[in-house]
Design goal:
By secondary structure, this protein is an all-alpha fold. It contains one helix and no strands. It starts with a helix and ends in an 11-residue tail after the last helix. The relative contact order is 0.05.
Length: about 70
């Protein structure tokens, strides 16, 4: 009987280890996906900031302003 109990405990530990391995793999995949999404969002935000700065620079330059309607 002690052998069966030991074998059962070993099987339970192996089962738990397999479950933990699957969980770690799933978490790693999710983390990698989130990192990729964050990088894409950072690039998009940098492009938007550049566009806003360019638009702001063009608007503040009087040479780029259209002439008033009475011309």
């Amino acid at each position: 009987m002690p052998d069966e109990s030991l074998e059962q405990r070993i099987n339970e530990l192996e089962s738990k280890t397999a479950f933990q391995d699957d969980a770690i793999t799933a978490l790693n995949d999710a983390l990698a996906h989130q990192q990729q999404t964050i990088r894409q969002l950072q690039r998009s935000m940098e492009k938007l900031i550049e566009q806003i700065n360019e638009d702001r620079d063009q608007q503040s330059d009087p040479a780029n302003e259209p002439p008033p309607p009475h011309y």
